[in-house]
Amino acid sequence: xxHPESGTVVVTASGDGTYTQRVTTAxxxxxxDEPVAVGGADAGPNPxxxxxxxxxxxxxxxxxxxxxxxxxxxTRATVRLRHDRVHAEDCARCETxxxxxxxxxxxIELEGDLDDDQRARLMLIADKCPxxxxxxxxxxxxxxGT
Length: 146
Description:
The chain is of the alpha+beta class. The protein folds into 2 domains: 1-44, no CATH class; 47-135, 2-Layer Sandwich (GMP Synthetase, Chain A, domain 3). It has helices spanning 47-70, 116-126, 130-136, and strands spanning 10-13, 21-24, 29-32, 74-87, 100-112. The strands form 2 sheets. A 3-stranded antiparallel sheet has the order 1-2-3, with no helix packed on it. The chain is globular, with a radius of gyration of 18 Å. InterPro entries: KH_dom-like_a/b (IPR015946), OsmC/Ohr_fam (IPR003718), OsmC/Ohrsf (IPR036102). This is Osmotically inducible protein C.
């Protein structure tokens, strides 16, 4: 299979398993699937795990870049994420007041000889990663058929 141009992702059925999808980027190929419990073959992470992986990896990379640029002695950032659905009325910071909404919980563990100011600054920078900004802003998805 030819790889698409940089910045394009192609998703197509892998031919193995009911829900297994092959994701191809300019330089990588991976499988995405659903767990066995919902009829998949568990041949790869599920779509929500990929979404969390995107946010977590972007957060860690952003922290690494910032620490390197500012000379902050960050040894490692570990990001743990979870997605769930909550009732809107249980969310104090949400504009939506009714129905269910998605919530991503992100825990960041910072390792290194960091002082309190450096830790606080890194936590602020975490919210500035590009994927966080994308997920926190209005998103327009244009769908076309061929």
